[in-house]
Design goal:
By secondary structure, the chain is α/β, with parallel strands linked by helices. Helices cover 43% and strands 19% of the residues.
Length: 124
């Protein structure tokens, strides 16, 4: 599929401060950003066909693992790059995310360099 120029990243994060920090890092690195904090916003964001989804696990009305599962089960979105970004740092959680098909898993708070490095690898 044609990529957006610059790439569009859907940031799924319900904590506003964390979301703003991630958004600032992304825009400083020349990415377009769309933010989503709940299920409806996630659906709207995915309709925009982002080049990458940064996906939190614990959301007010959704679970990032379930969302990832749905993305992977959907014909048109199965290959959408998804990077999990979660405060759940236990090995079980990380393995669950990777087993469900995440392209990567970072724990919060992620250093902006680590985040950008992971994004570059996933989008390469």
């Amino acid at each position: 599929k044609p990529q957006h120029t610059p790439p569009l990243v859907l940031i799924v994060e319900d904590d506003d401060v964390t979301g703003m920090i991630i958004e600032r890092v992304m825009t400083m690195n020349k990415f377009q950003v769309k933010r989503a904090a709940n299920r409806n916003q996630i659906v709207e964001g995915i309709k925009m066909r982002p080049d990458l989804v940064l996906l939190d696990v614990m959301l007010p009305d959704a679970n990032g693992f379930d969302i990832l599962n749905r993305i992977r089960a959907h014909d048109k979105m199965a290959d959408l790059p998804v990077l999990m970004l979660s405060s759940l740092g236990a090995l079980d959680d990380i393995l669950k995310g990777l087993k469900l098909g995440a392209n990567g898993y970072l724990t919060k708070p992620a250093k902006s360099k680590a985040l950008m490095d992971a994004i570059k690898i996933v989008l390469a």
